[in-house]
Write a structure and sequence with these properties.
globular; about 75% helix; about 0% strand; single chain; mainly alpha
């Protein structure tokens, strides 16, 4: 089962980058925040369609949901807008490595401290090495494109 979910996570990462590249193209034409707005409206409409046709898992009830959890959508607006602005300037590979590095760093902190209701998972030496190697990868990708001196 872990292999299936690992494969799904890998495929999802590919879809995520494809989505960001499409959004960046849209953002170049209508602006970073305009592109983010269109992205979120289209996503909401598609998500609503999936719920209507029966792809919703579980119940759809807002009562009892902490307000904090609704901030994800607000943060998403900035994520898409920043990608729309940055990808054309620094490239998809560099943005992907930086974003993945930041995700691994922040998720390691969330795991370590058990934030947002998760079970604490202490940061280990191997996790620190993994974060460091990803940071080194980001540096190598950045330096391979001339250190960003073209912009």
């Amino acid at each position: 089962m872990i292999i299936l979910f690992s494969l799904l996570a890998f495929v999802n990462g590919g879809f995520l980058m494809l989505s960001q590249l499409l959004n960046a193209g849209l953002g170049l034409r209508i602006g970073p925040f305009g592109g983010s707005l269109v992205n979120h409206v289209a996503g909401a409409l598609f998500g609503g369609l999936l719920l209507v046709v029966g792809f919703g898992a579980g119940h759809f009830v807002f009562s009892g949901v902490p307000v904090l959890y609704f901030l994800g959508g607000c943060i998403g607006v900035f994520i898409v807008a920043l990608f729309n602005y940055s990808v054309p300037l620094v490239g998809a590979a560099f943005m992907s490595v930086l974003w993945t590095s930041a995700q691994l760093f922040v998720s390691s902190l969330i795991d370590h401290f058990g934030w947002l209701g998760s079970e604490p998972i202490p940061i280990s030496a191997s996790r620190l090495v993994g974060v460091g190697l990803l940071a080194l990868g980001a540096y190598l990708v950045f330096s391979a494109r001339g250190g960003g001196n073209e912009a």
